[in-house]
Automatic annotation (TrEMBL):
GO terms for molecular function: chromatin DNA binding; transcription coactivator activity. One of its GO terms (cellular component) is nucleus. Coiled coil: none annotated. InterPro entries: WBP2-like. It comes from Phytophthora nicotianae (Potato buckeye rot agent). This is DNA repair protein rad5.
Length: 151
């Protein structure tokens, strides 16, 4: 678990998490509230965006957050660590998209299923609801030469 994954700025100046090796971005959802209680009972609460990838779920806080800045949880046993309690609130809907994708990816990780990279790279379109603000990635963000950290 990490409260500071590497971030980079895209061409619009938005901070994005830097992908790990063999990691693909699946979706992004804005207007999320994240709250985490650490083992020493410190509470972190912020608003921001959540990214769902093939390896983890990442919360990136909005600008102006003084404590930490972001949170990620790998798709491994003991989600959030045995001593961490956390919750995610969808302020603008979205559980009907994000949760099924998250649960499907968790199941694939448990079965240790490999992602067919050729299939992923050949996808050129996605079917989305125009009323749903979830971003579905059909092309992966371009990794910069150097990543930046937010404070």
């Amino acid at each position: 678990m990490s409260f500071k994954p590497e971030l980079f700025e895209d061409e619009e100046g938005k901070k994005l998490p830097l992908a790990l090796e063999n990691e693909l971005f699946i979706l992004q959802r804005a207007k999320i509230t994240f709250q985490c209680k650490t083992p020493d009972h410190a509470v972190f609460k912020s608003k921001g965006r959540i990214y769902c990838t093939t390896q983890r779920i990442i919360f990136v806080a909005e600008k102006g957050v003084t404590q930490h800045g972001c949170f990620f949880e790998a798709f491994n046993e003991d989600i959030g660590g045995g001593n961490f309690s956390w919750k995610v609130t969808f302020a603008n809907g979205g559980t009907g998209i994000v949760l099924p994708v998250f649960l499907r990816l968790m199941e694939k990780r448990k079965k240790k299923e490999e992602i067919d990279m050729n299939f992923v790279q050949n996808q050129k379109k996605a079917f989305v609801d125009p009323n749903d603000p979830t971003v579905i990635y059909i092309a992966q963000p371009i990794k910069p030469v150097s990543a930046v950290q937010t404070t």
